[in-house]
Amino acid sequence: MHAIKVVALAGGVGAARFLRGLVGVVDPCHVTAIVNTGDDFVHHGLHISPDLDTVTYTLAGLVNEKNGWGIAGDTNACLEMLGRLGQETWFWLGDRDIAVHLARTRLLGEGLPLSSITDRIRRALGVRARILPMTDAPFATVIETPEGALPFQDYFVRRGCRDPIHAIHFRGAGVARPAPGVLEAIDLAEAIVLCPSNPFVSIAPILAVPGIREAIERAPAPVAAVSPIVGGKALKGPADRMLRDLGHATTAVGVARLYEKLVDVFVLDTQDAALAPEVERLGMRCAAIDTIMSLPQRARDLARDVLGLLRR
Ligand code: FO1
User: Fold this and answer.
1) Residue located nearest, by CA, to atom 12 of ligand 1
2) pLDDT of 205-260, one tens digit each?
3) Given the DSSP bridges, would you call strands 167-171 and 265-269 parallel, antiparallel or unpaired?
4) Ligand 1 atom, smallest distance to 11 CA
């Protein structure tokens, strides 16, 4: 076990798997995940925080491994009934998952901030690592497409990421403040990791909260990023199409360029080892490691190797 304080910037499934590896090699009490809330939305009157839940369920050992999100073995009686009532069913909601959204929505209605609610949920589910939303303020990722501006989950789930992307906006970014504990965790960190998450819709929203990017830039801790692009393809989700549509190289180098001046060590997959010199020319160290977390042991190895690189 590393006795080192680690802060990880996290989106959904890829980040959750990395974090599960991380808490296998670092005391979970020393791990703080700062999680994207740009995907949050209100659906059927419920406040849904997909990335916070994906991270929480994964660390709690509850996640549906096949999807990477939702709860293993969850039933869908509520969704089925909603369908019979003529309500929207394009966003799959399991019955147990709905319980979490009900609790979150009720507590928000009572005036509790999202950060306190997230902390209550993770403790109730036995998660020892700290999970912080990037902000307690309203914040929404909006995707500009030929069909107009789409709220993130409309683009991602309802329309299945099929629209070309002109631009991505973060509504609320101007006035958002980092959630309590975020800046302190970054200041005190001994290692900072940008998880293998989508750089545009998972990591960029976190960095767009005023103060977070600046805190990372001035933090004494070294910063690593793990590429979510392997062999020119996203491991999950539309990151490769977003790189292409927004005019970037559809490779790990395209991702590394987005992290220029922020990251000390860039980790790409062994399949992309030949790209390392190009990444190093951007002014960061580059290491090629097996980044595909097909099994929990692989995620632990990856986390251990990333921390090893940061300690060097
Ligand atoms: N992703 C899907 O592709 N389809 C779904 O119906 C869906 C439902 C869902 C429910 C709860 C939850 O926490 C996540 C869910 N996701 C679903 C995943 C989610 O939309 C994305 O993974 C993130 O927003 C992107 O990180």
Assistant:
1) 50
2) 999 999 999 999 999 999 999 999 999 999 889 999 999 999 999 999 999 999 99
3) unpaired
4) 26
Going from the Cα of 103 to the center of ligand 1, the distance in angstroms, rounded, reads 18
Q: What is the 3-state secondary structure (H, E, C) of the chain?
A: CECCCEEEEECCHHHHHHHHHHHHHECHHHEEEEECCCCCEEECCEEECHHHHHHHHHHCCCECCCCCCCECCCCCHHHHHHHHCCCCCCCCCCHHHHHHHHHHHHHHHCCCCHHHHHHHHHHHCCCCCEEEECECCCCEEEEEECCEEEEHHHHHHHCCCCCCCCEEEEECCCCCCECCCHHHHHHHCCEEEECCCCHHHHHHHHHHCCCHHHHHHHCCCCEEEECCEECCEECCCCHHHHHHHCCCCCCHHHHHHHCCCCCCEEEEEHHHHHHHHHHHCCCCEEEEECCCCCCHHHHHHHHHHHHHHHHC
What's this model's pTM, rounded to 2 decimal places? Answer: 0.98
Q: Ligand 1 within 6 A of 54 CB?
A: yes
**Residue 247 to residue 235: CA distance in whole angstroms:** 20
Whether 238 lines ligand 1, by a CB cut-off of 6 Å, is no
| 251 and 231 Cβ atoms separated by less than 8 Å | no
**pLDDT tens, residue by residue, 115-160:** 999 999 999 999 999 999 999 999 999 999 999 999 999 999 999 9
Residue pointed to by tokens 């006795």: 3
